[in-house]
Amino acid sequence: MVRLTVDLIAKNSNVKPRKEETIAQCLKKITHINFSDKNIDAIEDLSLCKNLSVLYLYDNRISQVNNLNYATNLTHLYLQNNCIPCIENLRSLKKLEKLYLGGNYIAVIEGLEGLEELRELHVESQKLPLGEKLLFDPRTLRSLAKSLSILNISNNNIDDIRDLEMLENLNHLIAVDNQLLYVKVGVKKI
Question: Which positions, given as ranges, span the membrane (predicted)?
Answer without folding.
Answer: none
